[in-house]
From TrEMBL:
GO molecular function: S-adenosylmethionine-dependent methyltransferase activity
SUPFAM superfamilies: S-adenosyl-L-methionine-dependent methyltransferases (SSF53335)
Name of the protein in its database record: Methyltransferase domain-containing protein
Methyltransferase type domain residues: 30-119
Pfam families: Methyltransf_11
Record's keyword annotation contains Repressor: no
Domain of life: Bacteria
Gene3D superfamilies found in the cross-reference section: Vaccinia Virus protein VP39
Gene Ontology annotations of biological process type: methylation
Keywords associated with the record: Methyltransferase, S-adenosyl-L-methionine, Transferase
InterPro entries: Methyltransf_11 (IPR013216), SAM-dependent_MTases_sf (IPR029063)
Amino acid sequence: MIPSGSRWNHNIHYHSRILRVVPKGAQRALDVGCGEGMLARELRRAVPYVTGIDLHGPSLDQAREHPGDVEYILGDFLTHPFEPASFDVVASVATLHHMDAATGLARMRDLLRPGGVLCVVGLARSTVPYDLPCDLAGVVVGALHRAAKGYWQHPSPIVWPPPVTYAQMRALTAEILPGSRYRRHLLFRYSITWRKPQH
């Protein structure tokens, strides 16, 4: 097993974007689609109570092999009986394209406490020619990272191609999370950051 600190892939590359926006004093965090728990364990260094939820039992078995006090739940994030507005941080990496994106974003929004932060790193489908320059640059940059760091293949199921395009995801984000920040990234990912209004 490759130690967590030595792993690299396109998803791990963007974990830092999530960790940077954890609000000061956050008490509870939720990792949606936590897989084998790498992001959940990183969140636990900053947040006292972290819950990871995933539908893939074998990934959760791997997560539970690591020491720590993260709570792991085998279940469906969309239907699990979490209390509304009960998390200071809701994070998700490469999970939203496994579900209806609008439903998933709305559920994440509703689980956040006022003042809490939602951060999503996701995959979307490219459209030609609009996304071609970014995709070509991503191939080059990704190859350089892989040559320097290797590549860790996660154990979770893969959905490909993503059902929603980058342009559709941007529009959906603006509709469901007004005031959010949406960014397209080189390594075939986008990110959404949103702070829930206090009132």
